[in-house]
């Protein structure tokens, strides 16, 4: 019996050659060199990515950044111990700068790790603004259980990062040399601030963000140093900023409160802090709001109201130890309504004068790995000032308006006079704190009700 070529069994050497040839053909489609572990991560299902990123988040932030004063007293702050900020435990009774203005300011930028470069972000460019939006939405703060992540819109970033007199050089970015990818950001906004009896031109620091893959490279201190250098070049030496972590040293510490609006949705999401002793039907009844507002003369702000609101705020904010000194242009920028960004309402008296105002801004979040809900809309209280209307009634109307606009929850800090209505309107105190800090300024600590400054981010 003759055997055809197709029936002939290959020898061991021939099998090996065929195997190598097949492997070579498959490898031709693979990138050269070892596969990037982060590329491998991105190939995984999103739920698995979230598990790994949560582990990285806990590993890179857990032990190094205290969240309570008790933890902070045992922590060594390698970077902040070199900065002009009050030390933890110091009792400060004086007022003034910790370090006087320097005669000369460093001209060259601080060094970055190899493979990275500084970039000044021109946020008037739609392309650059979109890049920043992507960086923040994928890497900015998120809940510890990795279920909710901020999702900023382009319009929101324009509002919060481009107030009157903003400077492009204070929008400080870090890019990867090889592909120009934006992986780090920090910003400063010019502001006139009153601290006790002192009026000071300084900056508000916003949106410190480092890509998750780079959080072990100690890039944050370099970002802060570089922004400080750029601010000093403009002759300013003080800053105010907030953080959920305890750094040296909080000027004041306040708490987050939230008022459920969309009870069914929040319950299905297991939103943190909901009252646990209520079933859904009881919770719906307990949190029910009126169908309509009840304050006579309440309406949305228009540009013509800016001067009246400016006067209202000036009188109201003088009561507090830390407050912004807003110009008329800044009142227009921060408070004039923008769709899904900022809402402001005024109460107009019978004689046409403005007697009260309330404003809240919009923060959207992405809900991760939920079978039904993909997004969450939160209204955050900005400023409220009342001279005629009861603050409880004014804020209840604000809740009604927010609910009618589709917000799921209303959030507020217990700063200013907010505690006068938080419990009465069934707000729930959160276990998270927000700490206020001053850079290169010492003054006595203040209670939350003496803080008249809110920094949207």
From TrEMBL:
Give the bilayer topology. Answer: Peripheral membrane protein
Q: Recorded GO terms, molecular function? A: glycylpeptide N-tetradecanoyltransferase activity
* Superkingdom of the source species: Eukaryota
Domain Glycylpeptide N-tetradecanoyltransferase C-terminal span(s) in chain numbering: 269-450
Q: What class of enzyme is it?
A: transferase
Q: Which UniProt keywords apply?
A: Acyltransferase, Cytoplasm, Membrane, Phosphoprotein, Transferase
Family, similarity comment: Belongs to the NMT family.
* PANTHER family cross-referenced by the UniProt entry: GLYCYLPEPTIDE N-TETRADECANOYLTRANSFERASE 1, N-MYRISTOYL TRANSFERASE
Q: What is this protein called?
A: Glycylpeptide N-tetradecanoyltransferase
């Amino acid at each position: 019996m003759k055997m055809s070529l197709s029936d002939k069994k290959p020898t061991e050497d021939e099998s090996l050659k065929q195997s190598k040839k097949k492997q070579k053909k498959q490898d031709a489609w693979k990138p050269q060199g070892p596969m990037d572990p982060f590329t491998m991560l991105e190939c995984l299902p999103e739920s698995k990515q979230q598990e790994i990123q949560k582990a990285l988040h806990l590993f890179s932030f857990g032990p190094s950044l205290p969240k309570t004063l008790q933890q902070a007293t045992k922590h060594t702050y390698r970077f902040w111990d070199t900065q002009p900020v009050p030390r933890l435990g110091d009792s400060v009774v004086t007022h003034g700068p910790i370090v006087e203005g320097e005669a000369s300011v460093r001209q060259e930028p601080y060094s970055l790790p190899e493979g990275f470069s500084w970039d000044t972000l021109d946020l008037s460019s739609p392309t650059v603004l979109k890049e920043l939006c992507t960086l923040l939405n994928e890497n900015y703060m998120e809940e510890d259980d990795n279920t909710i992540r901020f999702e900023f819109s382009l319009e929101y970033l324009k509002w919060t990062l481009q107030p009157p007199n903003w400077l492009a050089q204070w929008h400080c970015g870090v890019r990867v040399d090889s592909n120009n990818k934006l992986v780090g950001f920090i910003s400063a906004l010019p502001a006139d601030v009153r601290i006790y009896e002192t009026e000071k031109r300084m900056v508000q620091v916003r949106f410190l963000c480092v890509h998750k893959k780079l959080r072990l490279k100690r890039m944050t201190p370099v970002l802060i140093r570089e922004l400080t250098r750029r601010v000093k070049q403009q002759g300013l030496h003080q800053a105010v900023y907030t953080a959920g972590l305890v750094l040296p040293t909080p000027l004041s510490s306040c708490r987050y409160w939230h008022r459920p609006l969309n009870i069914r949705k929040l319950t299905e999401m297991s939103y943190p802090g909901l009252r646990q002793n209520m079933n859904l039907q009881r919770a719906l009844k307990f949190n029910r709001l009126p169908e309509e507002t009840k304050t006579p003369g309440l309406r949305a702000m228009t540009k013509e109201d800016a001067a009246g609101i400016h006067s209202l705020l000036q009188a109201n904010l003088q009561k507090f130890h830390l407050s912004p000194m807003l110009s008329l242009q800044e009142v227009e920028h921060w408070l004039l309504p923008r769709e899904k960004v900022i809402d402001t309402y005024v109460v107009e008296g019978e004689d046409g004068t403005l007697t009260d105002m309330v404003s809240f801004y919009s923060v959207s979040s992405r809900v991760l790995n939920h079978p039904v809900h993909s997004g969450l809309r939160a209204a955050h209280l900005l400023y409220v000032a009342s001279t005629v209307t009861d603050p409880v009634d004014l804020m209840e109307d604000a809740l009604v308006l927010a609910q009618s606009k589709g917000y799921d929850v209303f959030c507020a800090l217990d700063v200013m006079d907010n505690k006068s209505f938080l419990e009465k309107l069934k707000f729930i105190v959160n276990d998270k704190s927000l700490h206020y800090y001053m850079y290169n300024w010492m003054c006595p600590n203040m209670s939350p009700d003496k803080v008249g400054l809110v920094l949207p981010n």
